[in-house]
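[scheduler] slot 2 assigned
[scheduler] job type: sequence-to-structure, two independent chains
[scheduler] chain ordering preserved from manifest
[runner] begin chain α
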Amino acid sequence: MDASGLHIDGNGVAGTLEEIFTTEITVAERICQSCGSRAPIGAHRAYHGAGLVLRCPACGDLGARVGALGDHHHVLELRGTWVLARSP
């Protein structure tokens, strides 16, 4: 967690993302729709609130939102993401 206690890096939400993608996702690269930067999910800033919010490490824009529906269902929104790709 950062010094202000407001966010963690994307690695801190690896478990939740693995439940959705069924694979290790923190090494997958995301291309930001706002600034065009390319960064692994693990480098993004993650905020907890009413779900999880991932923000671009370069510009801070919204990259993804994850919400829970009950114990075993998730809602994933990738608004702000052009590409999410994992190398073989």
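[runner] end chain α
[runner] begin chain β
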Amino acid sequence: MKKALLIIDMQTMPFVWKDYGGKPLYHEARLIMNTKLLIERAREAQSPIFYVLHTETTGPRSVEQPLWKIVDPVAPAPEDFLIIKYHADSFHETDLHMLLCNNGVEGLVICGIQTDYCVDTTVKRAYSYGYKVELASDCTSTFNSDELTAEQIIRHHHHLLQQFASILPSSQVVFKA
């Protein structure tokens, strides 16, 4: 089974949100480090890598704005696929499903931001399309809410997503060449 790595919204904005009065991203250094290792392993196995970029029509998250760009440590290579989305669902009104099909992808390893929004929605949609989904549990993150810590939110969503994906640490993800 051919797997692809799907990296959701690893853009500058969530990593600097705290600098603009927002809350800090939970375990951001671990998120970057583990995602970078996943990327390296996917490349070694020659698995395709898809980057999804949350985009708005205007403002700091519009195309090519500094806060819209993917953070440098996990930046895409020229051969990687870039998917621009305007919704929480990485498949909605994008070419993602078509590109995955055209590349013979049957399995997805998903990681990124935010566990409780775009990651959650994309895992469920990928499952509904029939992909075998793996969620790299130490490669998703979010922010504290007013009611719950980011850790509680992540743990809760990972528990719920077990119905749609295998939840495993990135060290256990295997890409086959």
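[runner] end chain β
[qc] chain β: The domain at 3-172 is CATH 3.40.50.850 (Rossmann fold).
[scheduler] slot 2 released
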